[in-house]
Write a structure and sequence with these properties.
mainly beta, SH3 type barrels, five-stranded antiparallel beta sheet, 43% strand, globular, Cytochrome b6-f complex subunit PetP, Tsr0524-like
């Protein structure tokens, strides 16, 4: 996955807030990467409403354009 790619949230690994849960099934653009807890990398996704949050790589799928 690369910055600028379109991705879709297709699953959520953990219990999350209702705000983040509402992103399930939505598509957004990868904006950045961040370290999570030292054992993984999070992917920061920005959505059409300009909100952004991070996800694990296995929670996202690249959207073919």
């Amino acid at each position: 996955m690369e910055i600028g790619q379109k991705v879709k949230v297709y699953r959520l690994r953990d219990r999350v807030s209702p705000v983040i849960a509402s992103k399930l099934g939505k598509s957004g653009t990868i904006k950045d990467f961040r370290m999570t807890d030292g054992s993984g990398v999070g992917i920061v996704v920005e959505f059409d409403d300009k909100s952004s949050t991070w996800f694990f790589e296995d929670e996202l799928k690249v959207v073919e354009s």
